Amino acid sequence: MKKARTVFICQECGYESAKWMGQCICGAWNSMVEEKIVPINENDSRGRAALSADGNAVQRVKATKLSEVKSGNFSRIDTGIGELNRVLGGGLVKGSLTLISGEPGIGKSTIIIQAASNIADKYGKVLYVSGEESEEQIKMRGDRVCKCDIQNLFLLAETNIENILAVTDELKPEFIIIDSIQTMYSAQLDSAPGSVSQVRACGNELMKLGKVRNIPVFIVAHVTKSGDLAGPKIVEHLVDCVLNFSGERNQELRILRSFKNRFGTTSEIGAFEMMEDGLIEIENLSKTFLEGMEDGAEGAVATAVYEGTRPLLLEIQALTAPTNIGFARRTAIGIDNNRLNMLLAVLERKAGLSLINQDVYVNVVGGLKPEGTSTDLAVALSIYSSYKGLTGSGKTLALGEIGLTGDLRSVQNCDKIVREASRMGFSRVILPKKNERAIKEPPQNIKLVGVANIREAIAQFS
Prior knowledge:
Layout: E1 5-10, E2 16-17, E3 32-37, E4 76-77, H1 82-88, E5 92-93, E6 97-102, H2 108-122, E7 126-130, H3 135-145, E8 153-157, H4 161-171, E9 175-179, H5 196-213, E10 217-221, H6 234-238, E11 241-247, E12 253-261, E13 269-275, E14 278-281, H7 285-290, E15 300-307, E16 310-322, E17 330-333, H8 337-350, E18 358-364, H9 376-388, E19 396-398, E20 401-402, E21 408-409, H10 414-423, E22 428-432, H11 433-438, E23 447-451, H12 454-461
Parallel strand pairs: 6-10, 6-11, 7-8, 7-9, 9-10, 17-18, 19-22, 22-23
Antiparallel strand pairs: 1-2, 1-3, 4-5, 11-12, 12-13, 13-14, 15-16, 16-18, 20-21
């Protein structure tokens, strides 16, 4: 390998000289700056800095001042799917890598081909690379779910990453889809597709392709039995956005959630309904979660969480039953089991409930797993309602975090949640006192009930 050499470069015009000059040929005085040039081996294709935007090898590696880098107002591409744009933070960022995972048959290929057809119709050429399906299979799905003109949507059934890069250089697409990363392989490695080394190498090549040529790349990934991404963890670090598509096979609801997003928030969710002609966006998700809630049912309480930029109302159901074995069961779906055990301990010590011989089951209706602690009060009240046989009103919503002392702590964005509850037809909201005092002008058709602890909340609920 060649050794580094020292040159003098004019800061005004960029002229290079082997020796220092007091005056540059452009006429500028004392503008020559000494720089050390590190040559690049043209056969080394592993580094991102080794290529220019047109794919050719550059002459030297050079650091850039942060102050000289252009402003980061990212140019986004509209996918034509509002819920997908919401989760991505407003659309696909050019040059970004997005990884989407989910169980087989959940709808990953459906949502990406719908987005691909929309982008092809609006922006230009899109390359769909499939290592699992033939071109005929993809065409059949496209005919069924795509609503736009697909003249600019190109299909490639290939698993060799070098061939894919060659086709990309020839086609110059605006958007690339890789389905899936576990089926890709590089001829430079002898290991089988899907191995740690192959996934790492192909992921690095795709990252370099997207960053250097400023092309957004969508990568589909397999999952393990436990639901985690298959393959090395380094792939999640390489990409800019990690999406997870989840749902129940026997239900139409599908939830898209972001676990990592360098260009947006990770708290947004997107809701879809799987239909015969593809995925349909669900704009009013709260109505979907609450449509089966009965007025006057035991153990059912409405609550709310704030997901990203919108409030989301949902139903918490609880059931208590005398245990028939030595140890009582504690089962929670959608709620962290450790959080449930803590709330049961608070109910026993601060509310006087004896649950040591009771099996407790808690379920978030709809299959959503809400983040945060704003659902604590609804979980506690639903357990109390089931244990005491009390029927609550279907027009009452409860929210608040419960501490170990039994006190209620405030939740964020409570004013927006109250307005959403009013819009959905609720007439009463049980909430922490701090949140009640902070809401100066509540909606006229709703009553706010501020409580300080779990005892006061139970008294208001019953």
